[in-house]
Here is the input.
Amino acid sequence: MLLAHYSREGLKAMNARSAARPHRIQIFTGGCGLCSETVDIIEIGKCKDCKMEALAVDDPKNGKAVKRYGVSAVPTVVIDGRIKVLGVPDFPWFCGDEFYGKLEREFPLAK
Here is the structure.
């Protein structure tokens, strides 16, 4: 996994220098190991201003969001309602306008 090349401290330092606007990161989970790994990857790489929440797909209170974003597999990551990443990210996660722009181009949320 690519994250092995980056230390927790190194990713946090990159995020401290980032000037990205805060993002809303929703991780749709099913309680599996891959879901936990995804939460960890994003928690390590997100900046302090970004809001991250893990949402269990089997919780009825999350049903509207699951349907709105077309979540059909876990883990699924939705960012700002515009970006949708399926599965465990295979790239290092860090906040920055350039990073989120790349995600928006490569993983647009189809409506």
In short: The beta strands are 24-29, 51-56, 76-79, 83-86. The two ends are 30 Å apart (CA to CA). Residues 33-45 form the longest helix (13 residues).
